[in-house]
Amino acid sequence: MARGGRGSLTITSFSCIGKLLQRVNNYMDSPPPPANVVVVRKRMGSEGISSHAGSISKASAAFRFSEVAGGIFFIGGVVLALVGLFSVDSSYTPGGAYLLAMLPGIGVTVLGLIAVVLAQIGHASVVSAEIAAETLKIAKNEGKTSP
Description:
By secondary structure, this protein is an all-alpha fold. It has four helices and no strands. The chain has helices at about 5-30, 35-50, 55-85, 95-145. Helix 2 packs across helix 4 (about 95-145) and helix 3 (about 55-85) packs antiparallel against helix 4. The chain is elongated, with a radius of gyration of 31 Å.
């Protein structure tokens, strides 16, 4: 079939949709998987949920610790910047000397802020994993009680 005109392109696209629908119907008519495959999947899922409970709490504690450490670095950087600012002698100093004296404190402050942000991102991912584990546990328990 030539693809020169609009009509031939439409017929070709409809035939592709027809083939796709035929494949979907064949898939829906196929028999379900054997019972032993379903049992293996259920066993693997229940072991996975229970084995990760301890690692989730350890990861959460590690991210909380790193968030506190980042906050301490942030506060320490602010103090270091203020100490650098007030340690410059005001007589005979150019204007850039104040900024250069504060630069180490600003650097430590920025690193502390980045550490806090990364710790919060990590903690959010741990909480998300914990919620997913609880959701799987609830779904597994509902699967056992329903006929």
